[in-house]
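Predict fold of Late embryogenesis abundant protein LEA-2 subgroup domain-containing protein; 210 aa.
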Amino acid sequence: MSRFSIESPKHCAKKEINVNKFYKKFFFIFSSFFTSILFLILIVWLILRPAKPQFSLKEADIYQLKLSGFNLLNSSIQLTLLSKNPNDKVGIYYDELQAYAAYKGQQITVATPFPPFYQGHQDSNLLTASLIGTGLPVASSFGYEVGRDQTAGKLFLNVKVNGRLRWKVGTWVSGRYRLNVNCVAVMAFGPSLPSGPLSSKQGTQCSTTV
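Predicted 3D structure, encoded as tokens:
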């Protein structure tokens, strides 16, 4: 005669309670571990306190700034920027950096990309780019504004750099943060253009937001 047993509802309830306890214990351990890791990263971050990178405009030369028919602009600008990492223990990866020039809120060149690069502790890098605009539409008042600046003898140009950066601490690398840089170049505007370039070599400090 074969034997078989039938478990009572009490036995089934005990098994269900044990399974629930196991999952709750596993979830608690996993949550505690994950929270500890996040807390450790936060502590390291607060101790190191990474500072924003510093940018300065070393040189900007306008070789062409000419209106054609129907308010279309042709422009050519040579740019040199200095980028510095002020941190002693934090490296910086720069990704997707693009530079362009703007005049009185109007973009006057297309965005020119910089190759990605890594910047070590207290390192500095020179970034050069040729900013070009061919047939870019501008406001009808553009020619008037440039003529007024020429009369005043000064032209104010904005050089902007947008992209993303990542912080590096030891072997840990953060996620990407948006980077925005704005530099103001003040150029002596005389009768030189188009026979010669307008130049700014002031080493202007730029504003940086991360």
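The helical segments are 9-48, 142-152.
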